Amino acid sequence: MESLRQYSLEFLSLLLLVLSFYASAFTYMPRLGILRRTIQIDPKTTLSSSSSTSEDLKTFYYTQRLDHFNYRPDSYTTFQQRYMIDFKYWGGANSSAPIFAYLGAEAPVDEDLDVVGFHRDNAPKFNALVVSIEHRYYGKSIPFGSHEKAMRNACTRGYFNSAQAIADYAAVLLHIKKKFSAETSPVIVIGGSYGGMLASWFRLKYPHIALGALASSAPILYFNTIAPKAGYYYIVTKDFKETSEACYETIRKSWAEIERVASKPNGLSVLSKRFNTCNKLNKSSDLKDYLDSIYADAAQYNHPPKYPVSVICSAIDGKAKIETDILGQIFAGVVAYMEKRSCYDVNEFNHPTETNLGWKWQTCSEMVFPIGHDSKDSMFPPSPFDLNKFINECKSLFGVLPQLHWVTTYYGGEDLKLILHRFASNIIFSNGLRDPYSTGGVLENISDSVVSISTINGSHCLDIHFAKPSDPEWLVMQRKAEVEIIRGWISKYQADLLALKHFHVGG
């Protein structure tokens, strides 16, 4: 009991430390992720709302090894990794019907499955077995018995990285194939955002397990030394400017107005009242960071049919433009996006939840995206990425230095087109060009089978969401193109499998 209390105190201390760093303007990185996490998902569209759909989904746990790359005694420690299977459309054991495997990312896998439906929507066309695997250290797949113990210190967190995660997926998929007599079933891995990066890397590292990969909105080129010059916030600005020049101008001018008001006596109280904040603002940067997060979130998840950027700009350009000043217009945009509330929590995007803490560790260890505000043609005040500041913050928070070059060393990145077209195959990199993270995505074909499918109006991971009747034609066609490519991979595999059987019979 005493040791448990000690773990809890250490975990609480870490959460408080994270919160204090956020409060002191910790270097902000827009989160990845399949879906927005600021507003509840419409229950009418969620997987959990359908009792028949929920009944089709069976939950299992695999006894997973803690460390796949070492042979120390503690490497053999195990934990229970959650995965889910939908058998509804499967062709059955020994049928060689494919396995569509969704690779979970930085969230509980059941949360993502409320919106991720590409693998389930297309299972009937292929008689596919549908698998979804949770990422270690998230959801219920927690080593060391609890999240508190797993995140306790640098030693326990040291097993929390992408290489271990995809090795987990390899072990689970081989286990599933053996358990359900599906040894000859080809595996197509699917992932979005960070999970899309994992899917592409899985195909590169484990081509003997995955026949192909669909990597949706995977910014695999957004790392140190290969990061795009016109990056994330360039696209955010572009999205708003193309939606409404007047809206863009209002946002661009608002930062100076916020500072002007804040500099006056009792100015922060005035801003707190104008923006109906749940707590009085301690500094103007708290409000500016909140607005920054809203604009980035809206651009990244600018999904039809509502198109959040248009929602914000319609509010800024509408009645508020006639009835109030710049700050009133900006607040109207906040209300339109965040919906009407009793008050607005400016720390909403930074709450140190278990998921946010896990992702903060990942960005401080290996997933370092050098995202900042460029001064060129931006609606944001200049604020370039400060690498030294970021390193010092991560060292203070977690006691480790970020491994800036490890991702590109381990998975590649430099000269991607020159290298991958010689040995890689069967990867679809899909992107929506209104997604700010598309600037770090693969936007042109690398070879005949490592291909890019982009849509001008698309947003983050939209193509792997459940299909809906309201989907625009361009989205329908994007998914259709992806399905046809996957069908081609599977057809070639089935032909090779048949030829191999004939060879063995003939031999």
TrEMBL record:
Protein name: Lysosomal Pro-X carboxypeptidase
Species annotation: Quillaja saponaria
Domain of life from the UniProt record: Eukaryota
GO process terms (BP): proteolysis
Membership in a protein family: Belongs to the peptidase S28 family.
SUPFAM superfamilies cross-referenced by the UniProt entry: alpha/beta-Hydrolases
Keyword Amino-acid biosynthesis annotated: no
InterPro entries in UniProt: AB_hydrolase_fold, Peptidase_S28, Ser_carbopepase_S28_SKS
Keywords: Carboxypeptidase, Glycoprotein, Hydrolase, Protease, Signal
GO MF annotation list: carboxypeptidase activity; dipeptidyl-peptidase activity; serine-type exopeptidase activity
Signal sequence segment: none
